[in-house]
Amino acid sequence: MKLSRQIPLNALRVFESAARQLSFTKAGEELGLTQTAVSYQIKLLEDQIGEPLFLRRPRQVTLTDAGARLAPKMTEAFAIMGEALSSLKEEAEGMLVIHTTATFASRWLAHHLGTFQMENPGIAVRLETSQEMVDFTRAEADVAIRSGSGEWPGLKSHFLMKSDFTPMLSPALAETIGGVNEPADLLKLRIIDPGDIWWPLWFEAAGIADPDLSGRPFSRYGAQSFEAAAAMAGQGVAILKPEFYADDVALGRLIQPFDLRATDGSDYWLAYPEARRHSKKIRAFREFMRGKMPTFRD
């Protein structure tokens, strides 16, 4: 049988306060109860135990022998519970769990999280990646960085950056066809994940309404960062967010043949439960992102 069904825990809390202060009135003030409510809880506990815990005298109460034996143990028990809850709260506030995509994690967060932890040494970070938007009611998560509309019920969101995209490939692959000089040249090469909705959007923006990608070999890598790795290896043309690959362009591993970018209407957002917007660790990470991303908007 559960303890709460054997002994009324509220009554134990009331008893501990009254015994510590030897006053039903002061116990009521501490716990936000009326003196009548305090008396009722004490009587409930005495009935459960089967013997009196207080001697009631005019304007004064004193502990019986049974009450005097029980009081210090209750004070210790509630102190242990308070310490346990405090420890859990400190641990929860000391660990920031971030959910995002593998691409954003590897291409942006990994380069900056060390700085965040140096600026916030009391906050540890755990990074979780998936392609799905995290359900804060089911998963252990504090914040999420995802692409989308930024409008999610119950969540506070902040704009981080536009999620636009353009084809990118290795210089060596481009040389196999004498260079990529116009958008149609890309169709002479293998397209990485031709089923990606980004491809027809970009080709349409480039003036090619029907690039006919349906007959090409199907490939899906599950994350943009993997497609980029395949493109660097010369395995095809990937459609990528160029900001994530500026270092690879500078090192000659990738080229962006056209300035033209397209978008599917989704952007990158920082999101977290509205009810937790004042959490110390969430506030610290939000302000860090605000300082690191010039395009950050509330």
Q: What's the β-strand tally?
A: 8
**Percentage of helical residues?**
40-55%
CATH architecture of the largest domain, by name, is 3-Layer(aba) Sandwich
CATH class of the largest domain: Alpha Beta
Radius of gyration: 31 Å
Write up this protein:
With 298 residues, the chain is an alpha/beta fold. The protein has two domains: 3-92, Orthogonal Bundle (Arc Repressor Mutant, subunit A), CATH 1.10.10; 101-298, 3-Layer(aba) Sandwich (D-Maltodextrin-Binding Protein, domain 2), CATH 3.40.190. The protein has eleven helices and eight strands. The protein has helices spanning 3-6, 9-21, 24-31, 35-49, 65-94, 102-119, 171-175, 198-205, 224-232, 246-250, 280-292; strands at 54-57, 60-63, 95-100, 124-129, 143-148, 155-168, 238-240, 262-273. The strands form two sheets. Strands 4-3-5-8-6-7 form a six-stranded mixed β-sheet. Strand 3, helix 6 and strand 4 form a beta-alpha-beta unit. Helix 2 (9-21) packs across helix 4 (35-49). It is rod-shaped and about 105 Å long. Keywords: DNA-binding, Transcription, Transcription regulation. Residues 7-64 form the HTH lysR-type domain. It comes from Neorhizobium alkalisoli.
